[in-house]
Design goal:
11 helices, single chain
């Protein structure tokens, strides 16, 4: 009986703990609405409402990049615990990987549409819970976008562009002290190679022509003599 009661108490305490954690994440929102917490501005509240919580706290964009690189932040008012940030490096690995993939993919997409746009050195990355703005230096962002464009050209040197992509990715991950995820570069290039390798979508038109020719030949075949076939079947039965 006591074990049963104890089990119920543990479940109740667990539910209370989850509820307290849930409320604590929204305290700053209520404080802002009441004007109690001056650090939480209207812009931060709007960002929370539109994009959800930031898994990296106040760090976002270039400040997040600088913090991961161990450099001084542009905004001295931002406070963070380096030990806590270090624990979040696996999350940042995902953020940086998605940013790099998006740059190459956007270059490919624009090339297919015969368009060109400015490479996004700052890009909001959606995560499982919330989102964050990712930043990489513009020079690297621009080059990755251009590689995406070049991979869509018929004369693209896949080996050369693959090597350059690897160098850029290695350099960026080295700056933030994170190992490059296995297969990242191959994944980035495969998204672009698939379009170039099909070069000639005209081959698909050739297949359509073959289908049309086959239909025409079938239509030209003489129709079967139904009366003759019926007679043959009757004789077999007799």
């Amino acid at each position: 009986m006591m074990e049963w009661i104890l089990g119920i108490l543990i479940m109740i305490l667990g539910a209370v703990a989850v509820f307290v954690i849930y409320l604590s994440e929204r305290v700053t929102v209520f404080e802002t609405l009441l004007g109690i917490n001056p650090k939480v501005t209207g812009d931060k509240l709007a960002e929370y409402v539109n994009f959800g919580p930031n898994p990296f706290g106040e760090l976002s964009g270039k400040d997040l990049w600088d913090a991961m690189c161990g450099e001084e932040l542009d905004n001295p008012e931002i406070e963070f615990d380096p030990a806590d940030l270090d624990k979040k490096r696996p999350r940042y690995e995902f953020v940086l990987s998605k940013h790099l993939e998006s740059l190459l993919e956007e270059g490919r997409f624009d090339a297919r549409s015969k368009e060109r746009s400015e490479a996004k050195a700052v890009l909001r990355i959606q995560m499982l819970r919330g989102s964050v703005e990712s930043y990489i230096p513009f020079a690297e962002a621009s080059r990755l976008y251009e590689i995406g464009q070049e991979l869509e050209t018929p004369t693209a040197s896949i080996e050369k562009l693959s090597k350059e992509t690897t160098e850029i990715v290695d350099q960026l991950f080295s700056k933030v002290g994170i190992e490059v995820p296995k297969g990242l570069v191959d994944s980035m290039l495969s998204m672009t190679q698939s379009i170039t390798d099909l070069d000639d979508l005209d081959d698909l038109d050739d297949l359509d022509d073959l289908d049309n020719d086959a239909v025409q030949l079938l239509e030209e075949l003489p129709a079967p003599d139904i009366d003759s076939e019926s007679g043959a079947n009757d004789s077999k039965i007799n």
